[in-house]
Structures are given as C-alpha cells and as structure tokens.
C-alpha cells in the first residue's frame, strides 16, 4: 500500500512538473509573440534626491499589457521566463528602449537624467552585455553615467569573483551600478564592500516598517551610515508615507522612490513630471501621479 501511495504521489508530482514546464514553454512563446505585437512597454518610476526632492532619474520597470488577459505583472512573468533565451532578448529590448528614452530626454532639455535598468541573472553573465551597452550608448549619443544597472544579490552570489569582474568592466565604461533589494539576501556589509557599486537600494520590506519597528529603523539607519562611509550612495525603495520620507531624510539617505513620491508612470508622462519640477522650482509630486 505504501508503495502505490508513493506511486500516486509521484504521479501527482509529475503532473505538476509537466504543468510547470508546459506553462513555461507556452508563456515563452506567448511572450515572444507579445514583443512582436508591441505589448511590452516601460513604466518609469521617479527617483528623487531626498533633501531637495529633485527628480534625478527613473527606474525602468517592464510592463506587459496582454490584449485579453490585461496587465501581467513582471513579478509573475519574469521568474517564469528566467533563463529562457527569450528573457535575454527581452532584457536587451529593455536596455535599447531605456537608452532611446535617455536620448529623447537629452533632446528635450533634460541632458542629465539617469535611467536605472533591472538586469536578470542570465543577462548579467551574458558575454555580450558590455558590448551591447556600449553600442546603445554610442548609437544614442548619451553619457554612460546616465545608465544605471540594478543587480540583485541573487544575480551576484553564484560566482563572486566573476561578478566583480563583470561589474568592473561595466563600471570602466562609465555606467553606474546599483545593488537592488539590499537586505533580502544573505550578503553582509563586508561582502558589499568588495563590490564595485555606486548605489545600494534598501529593500522595501525594511523601509515599510521604519516608523513602527525599532529593529528595522535601526537596521536602516545604520545601513545608511555604513554604506555612505564606504563611499557609496543609498536609495530607499518603497517609500509610501511622509513619515517614512522624513525619517529617511534624518538618516541622511541620499535618494528615494516609492508610491508616496510617484507610482511608475507610462513613458509619455515622464516629461510632465520633469517639467513640473522645472516650473515649480521645487519638487512636490501629487500623490495621484501615475497609473501603472
Ligand atoms: P524591483 O526592481 O525591486 O522594483 C521595485 C518594485 O516595487 C516595482 O514592482 C515597483 O512598481 C514596486 N514599487 C515601487 N514603489 C513602491 C511602493 O511604494 N510600494 C509598493 N508596494 N511597491 C512599490 P514591479 O514593477 O511589479 O516589478 C517587480 C520586480 O520585477 C522588480 O523589482 C524587478 O525585480 C523585476 N523587474 C521589473 N522590470 C524588470 C526588467 O525590465 N527586467 C528584469 N530583469 N526584471 C524586472
Ligand atoms: Mg530594481
Ligand atoms: Mg528593488
Ligand atoms: Mg524589489
């Protein structure tokens, strides 16, 4: 009886595996089609200098608007596409699109806006990443420091020496590097010190508790000071309230992004966000800004 039970359990397991594999294959071909049909776009989330409130750049976030399924979240499709050849294609599409946005911004009077691009594990170790980046920077005639690549700890952990070499190559080109979602992985501050990064992004899970959890408040406060002492700058992600913003200002956090400042917005709204700053002389985004 035990044996047949095991057999049944195995068959259920196998069925689940088949489903996961099939979904992955189906999703990949649907996504390929979607890219050809222009269903992908970038949403841009403003990043501000905490003290002045000035918008210094945007994080590019991938959006998939499916004609029948509606908006599909990157948190749902990116993990399934991870390590497919199509994910790599999509990652390069994001870089091309982001660089062309930087060019357009330059032509319309905003020559120093940065755009941060999320890099997947597969793209980070892809040998053509540096050349492709270089090519896009030259083709669009933009400054390399306007491009920031965001790397999560999981992208970096597998081979630290190799990771450091790739980071150094990209940094030598003049591009910026940020460590994304800091605090969620296993990496320590001493490990961080060995990485050639410009920015550390403190994960939203810490930021969201700084006003009501003493431990998280202390963690964020000391992380900000240590990172700055290491010569890097700090970006807080997921700022949702004025109280969080004010506390992060007190901690001397350099930059911030979050729904309180602005939700990610469609590409065409980027100009109105930047013009508001120019006209007002100071920055106060309305909380209703953004739709995605
Ligand atoms: P991430 O890079 O950590 O991006 C931040 C996520 O937090 C975004 O979710 C953003 O919309 C959301 N967010 C920003 N501010 C707030 C806030 O105040 N409150 C809350 N609750 N959420 C906030 P999104 O756009 O769904 O992206 C999820 C993840 O998908 C990203 O996390 C990133 O890891 C990945 N991703 C997005 N676009 C790309 C891409 O082009 N390429 C790759 N490889 N990954 C991407
Ligand atoms: Mg990111
Ligand atoms: Mg993040
Ligand atoms: Mg995150």
UniProtKB/TrEMBL annotation:
Record-annotated EAL domain positions: 24-278
Highest taxon of the lineage: Bacteria
Listed name of the protein: EAL domain-containing protein
Organism: Alteromonas hispanica
């Amino acid at each position: 009886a035990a044996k047949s039970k095991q057999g049944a359990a195995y068959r259920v397991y196998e069925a689940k595996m088949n489903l996961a594999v099939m979904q992955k294959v189906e999703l990949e071909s649907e996504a390929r089609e979607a890219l050809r049909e222009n269903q992908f776009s970038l949403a841009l989330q403003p990043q501000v200098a905490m003290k002045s409130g000035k918008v210094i750049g945007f994080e590019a976030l991938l959006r998939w608007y499916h004609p029948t399924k509606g908006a599909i979240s990157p948190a749902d499709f990116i993990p399934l596409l991870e390590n497919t050849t199509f994910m790599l294609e999509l990652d390069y599409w994001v870089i091309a699109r982001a660089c062309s946005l930087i060019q357009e911004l330059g032509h319309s009077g905003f020559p120093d806006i940065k755009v941060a691009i999320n890099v997947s594990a597969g793209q980070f170790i892809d040998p053509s990443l540096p050349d492709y980046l270089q090519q896009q920077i030259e083709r669009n005639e933009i400054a390399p420091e306007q491009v920031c690549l965001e790397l999560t700890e999981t992208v970096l952990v597998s081979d630290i020496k190799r990771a450091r070499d790739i980071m150094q190559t990209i940094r030598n080109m003049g591009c910026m590097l940020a460590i994304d979602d800091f605090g969620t992985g296993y990496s320590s501050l001493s490990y961080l010190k060995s990485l050639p990064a410009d920015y550390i992004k403190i994960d939203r899970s810490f930021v969201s508790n700084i006003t009501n959890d003493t431990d998280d408040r202390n963690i964020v406060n000391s992380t900000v000071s240590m990172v700055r002492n290491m010569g890097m700058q700090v970006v807080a992600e997921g700022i949702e309230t004025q109280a969080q913003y004010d506390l992060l200002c007190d901690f001397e956090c350099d930059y911030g992004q979050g729904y309180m400042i602005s939700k990610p917005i469609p590409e065409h709204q980027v100009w109105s966000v930047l013009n508001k700053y120019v006209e007002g002389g100071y920055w106060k985004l309305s909380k209703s800004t953004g739709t995605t």
